[in-house]
Amino acid sequence: MQDATDAQLAAQYEALPYPARDPRDEAKRLIIGSPSHLLEVDHWIFGARRPASQPLRALVAGGGTGDGAIMLAQQMAWAGRPGEVVWLDRSGAARKVAEARAAARGLTNIRFVEGSIMDLPDLGLFDYVDCCGVLHHLPDPATGLRNLAGVVAPGGGMGIMVYAPHGRTGVYMLQEAMRMIAPSGEAPAARVDIAKRVMRHLPETAWLRKNPWITDHLPLPQGGGDPGLYDLLLNPRDVSFTVPQLAALVEGEGMRIACLVEPLRYDPDPLLPDPKLRARTAGMSMIERAALAEALAGNMGIHIAYLTRAEDPVAVPDWNDPAAVPVMRSGDGAGWAKGIRGGALPVTFDGLRVMLPVPPLAGAILSRVDGRRSLAEIAREVEAGGAPAAQVARDMAALRMAMEPMNRLLLAAPSAA
After folding, report:
1. What percent of the chain has pLDDT over 90?
2. Is 175 exposed, middle or buried (0-12, 13-18, 19+ CB in 10 A)?
3. 348 membership: H or E segment, kind and range
4. Which end of the chain is more exposed for a tag (fewer CB within 10 A), N or C?
5. Is residue 365 within a helix (H) or strand (E), and if so which, with residue range?
6. By three-state DSSP, how is residue 352 classified?
7. What residues pair up with 86 in beta bridges, in sequence order?
């Protein structure tokens, strides 16, 4: 039975489909992000071992106006990958936007189903499940995750995004203020009007004004417009998770964290170069290290994680396979090679700048990563340029250790069974 908060949420997403999207923009851009980028799914969920020729059945649960479903379906179409993406959401208004976006792209590999994660319709099993920005709005996130975990096929996995507290500094203070001055019983349009008036007079001391990483409340195109403002400051149910809280949620529902995106962000060592401090972090577990990085950085407003079933064997990408094909998750290898400065790559995560050391042959290796050449072919070409084979092997391993945690250098799915 729907409670008052659920009714408010339903009214919110019917009045203000989220996120704000115009189907006409599909002719100009494809919105790319995480989770559910096809290359990430292949690498972090399937360990780059699942053949690209094998049909992929995906569920985008809480699909909203379609970002995740459109991205994954379009990438599958471009790559000639067989399969189906099922969009699931209870908002009819959001469905209309998502369907219009799919039609604008001519995508025929998406099926639209209206329904709730809390009362999941019988749709069968899925190789991959996306739940981005939804669990933190559910009346019981554990039940929602349990429902979704129950439809993950053996060997499959999930991609999730939940809010994180530290990077959302200022948000919950203003949510409290909005509950006082724009009570939840009013219509969404009236509440948006009041919220905009508050924001125009927001004191300089308000923490949200000091938080450069939160932009949803800003007008389009800088921010999320009215839907973004409502979702950020007026949403009737909003919880956030630290890394340990997220790990407990995931483990409690029979899943394991395969990857926190980007893994480098969750490594405290680049933030703590002091050897005495690193001696202490060396003995920490993955979750402890990630929690420390989260608390130190202070800029994580969300956590994105890829999950696999705890009962399944861990699928680890095989970087020792000479036939494996490396790919750049974004940009191209030559472009990344040009970005090397003084033996390091500058990397910025929400204002946090890290200089990532790379080996001497990094440029020569990266310039040959094109999604077609195998690791063995790249090694032979670099060796043909005069580099000793032993150094090529060392530098390829070192480059992988530097760029895989950035979620930039990944392995492609094998092209055939």
Report:
1. 95
2. middle
3. strand 344-349
4. N
5. helix 362-366
6. strand
7. 59, 111
Environment class of 118 (CB within 10 Å of its CB; exposed 0-12, middle 13-18, buried 19+): middle
The C-alpha atoms of residue 217 and residue 103 are separated, in whole angstroms, by: 29
Supply the pLDDT for residue 416: 61
Which residue has 């039940």 as its token pair?
143
Show Cβ contacts of residue 12 under 8 Å, excluding neighbours closer than 6 positions: 188, 230, 231, 234, 235, 236
CA nearest to 127, candidates 36, 251, 247, 261: 36
Residues 265/300, Cβ–Cβ less than 8 Å: yes
Q: Which one-letter DSSP state was computed for residue 407?
A: T
Name the residue with tokens 């409502």: 230
Name the pairing type of β-strands 326-328 and 302-309: unpaired
Single out the residue of 244, 251, 242 nearest to residue 288, CA to CA.
244
Eight-class DSSP state of 151: T
Residue indicated by tokens 């202070």: 298
Start-end of H helices in 263-319: 275-281, 286-297
Residue 89 is which amino acid?
Answer: D
Q: Which residues contact 69 (CB under 8 A, 6 or more apart)?
A: 60, 63, 85, 87, 98, 102, 110, 130
Count CA atoms closer than 13 A to 138's CA, side-chain side: 23
Closest among 244, 246, 294 to 271, alpha carbons compared: 294
pLDDT digits (tens, 9 = 90+) for 359-379: 999 999 999 999 999 999 999
8 Å CB contact between 279 and 254: no
333 burial type by CB count under 10 A (0-12 exposed, 13-18 middle, 19+ buried): buried
Cα–Cα dist 20/93, whole Å? 11
Q: Which residues contact 29 (CB under 8 A, 6 or more apart)?
A: none
DSSP H helical ranges for 28-162: 38-40, 67-79, 92-105, 141-149
Tokens, residue 142: 């554990």
Q: Which two tokens stand for residue 311?
A: 């009962």
pTM: 0.96
